[in-house]
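Can you make up a polypeptide sequence alongside its tokenized fold?
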Amino acid sequence: MAANASSLLAKARKGQRGVVESARRDWNRRSSSRGRRRDGEKEGDDEEGGGCDDSSSVGDPTHMPGKKSEAEAVTEDYQLDADRSFDSEDCRRAEALGLVGEETHYRQRFAPCSVMFCVVQCIILPVMMWQCGVAPLSINPMIGPYPDTLNYWGAKNAVLIVEDGELYRLVTPIFLHAGLIHLLGNVMVQAEVGNRWEKEWGSVIWMIIYMGSAVGSSIASTCFMPDNISVGSSGAVMGLFGAKFSEIFLLCCERSRSIRDLAAEKARKRQVCLVVGGL
């Protein structure tokens, strides 16, 4: 078993090196003329700068202060030739090198807002159930507290919002859930796609979309379902899906020109499946 694993690992490393070498050969073949022009411009700049040249470092990459790895060199080559069209083979090579992918489009490494909402929502429901008890399944099939408890903690109540002016009830329902089943469904979706899209958009944009969708869904529920008490972050989560679907639709209208655009287009196709499946 160990020998087989070592053999497979060696083949994978050999194949990765082959992909790198193939990508570099492909680039050299397609852009040799452009490389010669860049070299000519570089020589002209050296002559203007006084002709300083360290002959000991020529042809010896170990003496170059800014030596780059294979992946970095290929990345720079693709970026320098971003005006030409790329095919699926180029995209496959770039993905194999790790130059493109969903992670390359992230603006930040963490998603603090998404995590914070999930934690707060997971804390509030057990506290409500501990304080006021669990309602029978005939009253609350979601395995949660009584409806009066939800109303006391800030559920959407059209009468209190319109007549008593308790506008905070347009926001507080996103922190409340009817029961464990309701909480589990919302938190799982929010922790998965909400976390990913916050990294991609940034916390500020994510918060604007999330809170705007939450308030908008509460207003719509107040207008069209005034007799019901509503809780949950489903409206805010659906707002995230709607924003992502709009982004994908607009980006699909753009023409792919570079290797990164082509790879991003493939990533958007996968995201379309995710959004449609989530809806």
